[in-house]
Amino acid sequence: MVKDRIQQHLSATDAEIARLKQEAEAMPVSEMQNRDAAYQEIDKLIKELTAEFNTTTIVVTHDMNSVMEIGDHIVYLYQGKKEWEGTNKQIIFSKNQRLNEFIFASEFLKDAKEMRMLEETGKMPNDRNIDDMIK
Prior knowledge:
Order of helices and strands: HHEHEHEEHHH
Number of strands: 4
Structural class: alpha+beta
Oligomer: single chain
Radius of gyration: 17 Å
Largest sheet: 2 strands, parallel
Distance between the termini: 39 Å
């Protein structure tokens, strides 16, 4: 069962939260401290657990790989306040400067964003056409 498999990857706090929330409408998962090569398996298990229990899972993380992989609805907080909200597809087209600086900090990720925008729209983004590309 998925919940049994995920228990081995949870911190004591996460395990207690999961135990208390088994029948709740939403399942909170805090950022895992020791994310290593197993993170993809953890993300897969979170996704399976969410589907198995037909629940909402709230994941608090700084790991943008996880956000983009398992996030259906994303809320970006800055200094404790909601700064942006949308889907992992909409995040690519966001004009929010803080969000973009956080997610696309490296040149590699900036290039990846541009390639995704090209893939989605058939156009290379620039200052003149970025407003037309936002959906």
